[in-house]
Specification:
Length: 127
């Protein structure tokens, strides 16, 4: 009797393991496909240079903690920098920029913004 219940529990755990495994694998593949599609869309978009101003800036910090075993943990974080630009027509859009670019830009800066699709390329002040 114990063996039959154990076998059923083991079968259930085995099925759940494979379901979770394939779910995670599917999510990873979907994220990779989405990234490739966005990369290709940006590459096929024209490079535009427009008059723009820096409206606002924001930072998104993600923290991750992982278990190493023996009651040891490791912590990781990643930081993404975003800048919202406004063009002459009044339209606003947010672009991901590097940390160095983020530090060089200030709210209220005016100049020439160069971008390709959703990809930030450069911003030259003073125009």
């Amino acid at each position: 009797m114990f063996n039959k219940n154990f076998d059923k529990s083991f079968e259930f755990a085995e099925i759940m393991f494979f379901l979770v495994f394939f779910l995670v694998l599917g999510l990873i593949i979907a994220a990779a496909v989405r990234s490739i599609i966005m990369w290709q869309k940006n590459n096929n978009s024209p490079r535009l240079t427009v008059d723009a101003s820096v409206v606002t800036k924001r930072v998104n910090v993600s923290r991750h903690k992982g278990y190493l075993g023996d009651a040891r943990y490791h912590a990781m974080s990643s930081t993404r920098y975003y800048v919202t630009f406004q063009v002459e027509s009044g339209d606003r859009f947010e672009l991901l920029v590097s940390g160095q670019e983020y530090g060089m830009l200030a709210e209220g800066d005016r100049g020439k913004l160069t971008f390709q699709g959703t990809r930030y390329l450069s911003f030259e002040r003073g125009y």
